[in-house]
Amino acid sequence: MQLSNQALGAIMMALQESLMTQNDIVPVLQGFELEETNEGLIVKNPPTIRVSNDEQITKEDLENLAR
């Protein structure tokens, strides 16, 4: 059994968020819901990165997220 590229990306996202927020990565990794596929293990609930700044979110920003 191997990790898929998607699962590796999810781990890297979790690591990035952990480093940015200076929080423990272990609870995030423990919360991963894994599924075995032909590509290898995938994470069904990958983490998202939250970035905050003072700029307002525009309609164009939202449309770009949906692509």
Task: Report on the architecture of this protein.
The chain is α+β, with helices and mostly antiparallel strands. It has one domain (5-66). Helices cover 45% and strands 12% of the residues. It has 3 helices and 2 strands, in the order ααββα. The chain has a two-stranded antiparallel ribbon. Strand 1 and strand 2 form a beta hairpin. It is flat and about 45 Å long. It starts with a helix and ends with a helix.
Low-confidence stretches: none
Q: What percentage of residues falls in helices of 4 or more residues?
A: 40-55%
Structural class: alpha+beta
Q: In what range is the share of β-strand residues?
A: 5-15%
Strand arrangement across the biggest beta sheet: 1-2
In N-to-C order, the SSE pattern is: HHEEH
Q: How many strand segments?
A: 2
